[in-house]
Amino acid sequence: MLKIVAIDRERYINFVKTQPYRNFLQYPSWADLKREWQWNSDFLGWVNKDGKMVGGAVVLYRKVPGMNKFLAYIPRGPIIDWFSDRNMKEWFAPLFNHLKQRQVFSVKMDPPLVRRKWSCDTINQSIQEFKSHGLRGRRLTDIRPDQVFNAVEYVQQELADMGWRKHVVEDSFETVQPQFVYRLNMKNKTLEKVYKGFHPYWQNRIQNAERDGIRVQLGTERDLPEFHRLLALAAKREKSQVRDVSYFEKMFETLILEDPYRVRLYLARKGDKLLSTSLAVRVDGHTWDLYNARLSETMEEPSPYLLRWKMIQDAYQQGDRIFDFRGISTTLDENHPNFELLHFKMGFGGEACEMVGEWDYPVIPMLHWAFDMYMKRR
Known about the structure:
Structural class: alpha+beta
Distance between the termini: 42 Å
Radius of gyration: 22 Å
Number of strands: 17
Number of helices: 12
C-alpha cells in the first residue's frame, strides 16, 4: 500500500532529479514563481510500506471566490512510475484522500507522457501529398504517426476507468500546457550529426548570420528589460498578451536560487541592435526553449536560426540530449498563421510529440460538476 506524505524541499528535489519524467514544471522553483496559485512549502511524496519515496508531485492550489474550496493542478505530473505493476488506483486513491483534507473539490493534471510521435520527414511528405490531392484543412492528427506508445494508451484507459476525464481539444494551445510539442532528440548523436540533420536552408541561414556579423551572447538579469521589449513587440504584432517584466525578473531570481544553470537568456545582436532573443530553462538531460521573440516580422532574417543553433550546442555540451522547442499548432495549412511556428521548428530535424493532455477528476463530484456548469455558462 502506498500513502501520501508531505516532505521537505530538499528530499523532494533529491528524488525528482533522479526520475526519468523530471521536468521544470515539477520543481519547487516553478511553484515559487506561480503567485496566482496558493500553495505552501509542503511537497507530496508517495511512500511504500518501507517508507521509501517512490513518487512525487508539486500541487498548485487556487481558491474559488466565495468558497472555502480549492482547485488543484499538477503541471506535467505527477512524477510516478506510470508503468509499474501497481494499477492507477493504488497511486491516486491516497492522493484524493489527501486533497479532500485540503478542501480540494477538483484536480487537474497533464501527465509527462508522450502518446504519439511524427518525424519531420513524415510530416513534410504528408504535407506534399495533401497538396497534390488538393486536400485542405488537414492537421497533424490526420497523419499516421511514426510511433504509438501502447503502454500509454493502456494508462489512458485506466485513468478513464477510474473516473478521470480527458480535456479533448483540436489544437495544442487550448490547454494550460501545450498538448503537442516539438523535440530534437540528440541521444547517441555527435553535434556534427545533429547539424547535418538540419534542412539545408536552415544551415544556410545559420552560415549567413555568422557572415553578417550576428553574434549570440548569454545575458543576465540586467538584459531582461531589453528582452522584454522585444517580447512585447512580438506580442503586439501577434495580438497576444505578454507578462510584465517583473515576472521574468522573479523567474531568474527563483530558478537560479535553486540551480544556477536552470535558466539562460540568449541575445542575438548585430552591433548594438537586438534582433532575436530566447529564454531557456533546463533540468539535467532536457532543455526547453521557453520564451522567444524576434524583431523582424518575417522568418527571412537569419538571427533566430543562429540563436537556436547556439542554444542546441549549449544544451548538448551541458549533457542534455533533448532540446524541446515547446508548443506547436496541429495545423498543416501553409496559409494558416500558426503553421509558420511548426515549419520553423521542423527545419532543425526532430519530431512532433503528442502528450496525453489534460485530465480532470471530481474529488467532490457535486461541487466539481456545479463549478463546471458555472464556467460553461460564463
